[in-house]
């Protein structure tokens, strides 16, 4: 198991919890330590508990666990919310001068630091969280100079005075603890020479989009998708692109579609409720054979559900939403690095097959910040394939005997050419109505069948020529097989270590492709028991696997609104393995 | 070299170029006003020097939505109510294109009305033609947002209880910078208005009265019509918002009493379009988004520096 430290800062929404946590995470990343963060928050701007949690180790960390070592508590509720995770070696940093009487659980060490007073001395009460970070450095044996670097990055734009004050505040906290406490909790954060980048899943999607040449984005704000739009805004322009905040999701997807028809690589992103509205346009994207990437960062539903909580409840929607039969691809990245790579793949699939691609992520991944070696995002490995996009020279090949462009040409691979408006000799119609090769609407039975077959043939071609591989962990010959999709991968990979310690052999298959998807029949047959893990109540992926393989599987479902934790998963898997296979 | 060679091509353009070899004969009912829109558009486009390949027409669903099936341009027939977001984004992706959106009164003032308001508000540089026949034509005569109060239909057998929507006033208040009304029975005025709308830099809205003899027999053929610019009875300044608003209200009020007023109602020349405004603040590059890909120097701009902010 990784020698890890679990740290958190918590308080009221509006207390600057997020930026405080991020500064500490950055300091740790700068010190060559791995970081995996998570957030507890309520969807209120002010008033409401919120916390930023960091798990850090020298080795790679990919999950949260049920243990808290250092807690910076700005409110009593922060302590109460986390009481189960505290233990005898935990330290709680709080401000005893504040009006609340801290009720410290038995065993935990109380570290009372006058955060506000020290901050005021350093230049302003606003820096009280930074004082707390200094105190945390002292308790964990972490050099405060790493914090300096993070503070420079965070406040550098606001002038050197602000940076200096913050550095002073951090030192005040550190020195206060040094002078007033003689603690030996055994924490001593090791540092390394590694240089890591720190980013969350939505940033990775945004970065992937830019690297893939996405030059148009339209969206309508919705948690937790908004940060993709915010990432691209101000950045995409540097690469010659543009972001639009549309009047609603109906408009957002149609704008993304319009820009794609205009010739730009284009995408929209939203979350569940927004996908409902966008669904109207899926069929048009597919029948007009327009490349488009549609991202769903899932949150808890149905309806407004729990807007700031984790869930993987949209799998069926991604697979089936839209009336009629809509050919599509569904890709669900399983890690933050994969958010980057699968976004690029999504753009290539869209343009190679002129069809909608659903990129399905989730809230947990979108807010988690994690460290990676920069090579994990090697831009030289980015490949761009624009498929059968033709220019003035390429058009000729696709004209009929009367010189008309066959935008929906029936081909062996099912893929037709694309000509952007403005291309000489490429003028054509395209429509959501059934049409012939030229885009003329038709209800002739033979034409209908030819076009439906052609569109479905694209999917077959992709199935046979693209790679749809799954990710394999643990012992490939184990009797026990655990299958998962989306962001549960990290927690499962870590759960393997717990299981191994208990002598339980498990193979984990993490599936990033929902449609087309790998056929797991052989893998399931080879295993004695199969469990499908997902964050929803009904087991949508388990249903799909049972349908594919005609085999009953066991299920682990979580729909509390909180992502899986590694230790919790290990326990659940152990329990399930001892139970009867469902009939 | 531009990747869009059709754009800016200088040559004689023949009206017939706009008549597709594919489907030259429209399937609208005899006497339908939609023919008038097609005819005036075919006349206007060559006169403003546009070749079929530099024009994108985006339509909604309805009898009106068939327009681009009979017009040889780049055509995109969308879904009910959504022509505007598609059209305005295509324009952003390639501002050199001439983008025209079109659809019915149900399409634009009903199901797609939110997009109409916001496209006007944002002053996207495009032309929007609403075929206003005061009825749902394609679905066989149901009440539309512009059907007059008291108008009977299969869905409103006792007559519509609702006051019709005011397309011109709505357009002005939403922020359109060019607002006009014309009628199918007046193709010459229609052609001139379409030309002005195309040449206007900003959102140009044409409420085009198109009679539906099949389902809206109550509505006259929109004759006789009066051109408010030609008539001595009306005197207002199209650049004056208040005067325009008053003229629009009167026009909307008298339509259902049998007086058909048409013409230009509001023209705001100096208001920047969405694209101009975004370019001014550096949020929209000068080079068309869609063109970057064909720029050899772009080398896909692999964005090596993207990672820097995450260190
Ligand atoms: C989402 C959706 N709802 C309903 C319809 C059915 N429908 C097609 S056209 C139309 C209204 C047509 O009226 P209008 O927009 O005025 O066009 P017109 O036929 O009069 O030109 C309706 C309700 C549809 N195609 N899509
Ligand atoms: S139903 Fe009316 S609007 Fe439709 S084609 Fe016939 S006359 Fe024209
Ligand atoms: Mg109508």
TrEMBL record, chain A:
Heterotetramer of the KorA, KorB, KorC and KorD subunits. InterPro entries: 2-oxoacid/accept_OxRdtase_asu, Pyruvate:ferred/Flavod_OxRd, Pyrv/ketoisovalerate_OxRed_cat, Pyrv_Fd/Flavodoxin_OxRdtase_N, Pyrv_flavodox_OxRed_cen, THDP-binding, Transketo_C/PFOR_II. It holds the Pfam family POR_N. The lineage of its organism: Archaea, Methanobacteriati, Methanobacteriota, Stenosarchaea group, Halobacteria. NCBIfam families: OAFO_sf. This is 2-oxoglutarate synthase subunit KorA. One of its GO terms (molecular function) is 2-oxoglutarate synthase activity. It comes from Salinadaptatus halalkaliphilus. It catalyses: 2 oxidized [2Fe-2S]-[ferredoxin] + 2-oxoglutarate + CoA = succinyl-CoA + 2 reduced [2Fe-2S]-[ferredoxin] + CO2 + H(+).
UniProtKB/TrEMBL annotation, chain B:
GO terms for molecular function: oxidoreductase activity, acting on the aldehyde or oxo group of donors, iron-sulfur protein as acceptor; thiamine pyrophosphate binding. One of its GO terms (biological process) is cellular respiration. Keywords: Oxidoreductase. InterPro entries: 2-oxoacid:Fd_oxidoreductase, OFOB, THDP-binding, TPP_enzyme_TPP-bd. Its cofactor is [4Fe-4S] cluster. Residues 140-166 are annotated as: Disordered. Coiled coil: none annotated. PANTHER family: 2-OXOGLUTARATE OXIDOREDUCTASE SUBUNIT KORB, 2-OXOGLUTARATE OXIDOREDUCTASE SUBUNIT KORB-RELATED. This is 2-ketoglutarate ferredoxin oxidoreductase subunit beta. It comes from Salinadaptatus halalkaliphilus.
């Amino acid at each position: 198991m990784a020698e890890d430290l679990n740290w958190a800062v918590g308080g009221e929404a509006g207390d600057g919890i997020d930026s405080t946590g991020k500064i500490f995470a950055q300091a740790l990343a700068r010190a060559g330590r791995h970081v995996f963060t998570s957030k507890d928050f309520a969807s209120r701007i002010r008033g409401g508990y919120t916390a930023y949690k960091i798990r850090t180790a020298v080795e790679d960390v990919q999950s949260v666990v049920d243990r808290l070592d250092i807690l910076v508590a700005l409110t009593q509720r922060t302590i109460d919310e986390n009481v189960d995770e505290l233990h005898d070696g935990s330290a709680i940093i709080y401000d005893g001068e504040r009006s609340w009487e801290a009720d410290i659980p038995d065993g935990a060490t109380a570290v009372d630091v006058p955060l506000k007073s020290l901050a005021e001395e350093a230049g302003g009460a606003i820096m009280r969280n930074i004082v707390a970070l200094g105190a945390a450095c002292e308790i964990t044996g972490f050099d405060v100079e790493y914090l300096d670097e993070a503070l420079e990055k965070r406040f550098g734009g606001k002038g050197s005075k602000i940076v200096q004050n913050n550095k002073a505040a951090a030192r005040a906290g550190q020195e206060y603890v040094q002078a007033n406490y003689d603690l030996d909790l055994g924490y001593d954060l090791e540092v390394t020479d590694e240089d890591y980048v720190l980013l969350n899943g939505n940033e990775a999607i945004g970065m992937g989009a830019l690297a893939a040449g996405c030059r148009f984005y339209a969206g309508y704000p919705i948690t937790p998708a908004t940060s993709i739009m915010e990432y691209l805004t101000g950045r995409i322009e540097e690469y010659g692109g543009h972001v639009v905040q549309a009047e609603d999701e109906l408009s957002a997807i149609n704008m993304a579609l319009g820009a794609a028809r205009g010739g730009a690589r284009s995408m929209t992103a939203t979350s569940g409720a927004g996908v409902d509205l966008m669904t109207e346009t899926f069929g048009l994207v597919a029948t007009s054979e327009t490349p488009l990437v549609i991202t769903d960062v899932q949150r808890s539903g149905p309806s407004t559900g729990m807007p700031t909580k984790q869930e993987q409840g949209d799998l069926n929607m991604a697979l089936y939403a839209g009336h009629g039969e809509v050919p599509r691809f569904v890709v669900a990245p399983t890690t933050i690095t994969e958010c980057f790579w699968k976004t690029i793949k999504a753009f290539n699939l869209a343009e190679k097959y002129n069809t909608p691609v659903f990129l399905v992520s989730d809230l947990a991944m979108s807010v988690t910040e994690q460290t990676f070696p920069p090579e994990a995002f090697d831009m030289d490995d980015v490949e761009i394939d624009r498929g059968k996009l033709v220019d003035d020279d390429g058009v000729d090949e696709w004209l009929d005997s009367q010189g008309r462009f066959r935008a929906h040409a029936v081909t062996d691979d099912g893929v037709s050419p694309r000509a952007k408006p403005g291309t000489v000799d490429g003028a054509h119609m395209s429509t959501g109505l059934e049409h012939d090769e030229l885009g003329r609407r038709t209800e002739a039975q033979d034409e209908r069948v030819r076009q439906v077959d052609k569109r479905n043939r694209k999917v077959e071609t992709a199935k046979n020529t693209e790679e749809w591989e799954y990710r394999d962990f643990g012992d490939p010959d184990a009797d026990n097989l655990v299958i998962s999709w989306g962001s549960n991968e990290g927690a499962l990979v870590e759960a393997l270590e717990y299981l191994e310690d208990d002598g339980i052999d498990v193979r984990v298959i993490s599936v990033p492709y929902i449609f087309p998807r790998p056929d797991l029949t052989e893998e399931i047959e080879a295993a004695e028991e199969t469990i499908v893990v997902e964050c929803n109540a009904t087991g949508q992926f388990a249903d799909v696997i049972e349908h594919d393989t005609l085999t009953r599987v066991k299920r682990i479902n979580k729909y509390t609104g909180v992502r899986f934790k590694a230790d919790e998963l290990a326990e659940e898997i152990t329990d399930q393995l001892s139970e009867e296979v469902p009939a | 070299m531009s990747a869009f060679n059709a754009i800016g091509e200088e040559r004689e353009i023949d009206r017939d170029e706009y008549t597709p070899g594919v489907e030259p004969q429209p399937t609208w009912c005899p006497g339908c006003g939609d023919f008038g829109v097609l005819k005036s558009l075919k006349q206007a486009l060559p006169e403003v020097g546009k070749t079929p390949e530099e024009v994108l027409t985006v339509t909604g669903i309805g009898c009106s939505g068939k327009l681009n099936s009979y017009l040889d341009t780049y055509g995109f027939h969308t879904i009910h109510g959504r022509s505007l977001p598609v059209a305005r984004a295509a324009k952003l992706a390639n501002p050199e294109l001439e983008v025209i959106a079109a659809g019915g009164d149900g399409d634009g003032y009903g199901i797609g009305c939110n997009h109409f308001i916001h496209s006007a508000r944002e002053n996207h540089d495009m032309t929007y033609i609403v075929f206003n026949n005061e009825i749902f034509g394609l679905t066989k005569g149901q009440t539309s947002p512009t059907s007059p109060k008291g108008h009977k239909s299969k869905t409103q057998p006792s007559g519509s209880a609702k006051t019709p929507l005011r397309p011109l006033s709505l357009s002005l208040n939403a922020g359109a910078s060019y607002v006009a009304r014309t009628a199918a029975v007046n193709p010459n005025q229609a052609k001139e208005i379409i030309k002005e709308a195309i040449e206007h830099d900003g959102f140009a809205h044409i409420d085009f009265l198109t009679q539906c003899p099949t389902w809206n027999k109550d509505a006259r053929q929109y004759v006789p019509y009066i051109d408010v610019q030609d008539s001595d009875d009306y005197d207002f300044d199209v650049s004056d918002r208040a005067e325009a608003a008053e003229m629009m209200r009167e026009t909307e009020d008298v339509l259902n009493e049998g007086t058909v007023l048409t013409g230009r109602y509001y023209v705001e020349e100096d208001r920047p379009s969405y694209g101009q405004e975004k370019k001014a603040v550096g949020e929209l590059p000068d080079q068309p988004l869609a063109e970057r890909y064909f720029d050899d120097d772009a080398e896909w701009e692999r964005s090596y520096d993207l990672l820097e902010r995450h260190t």
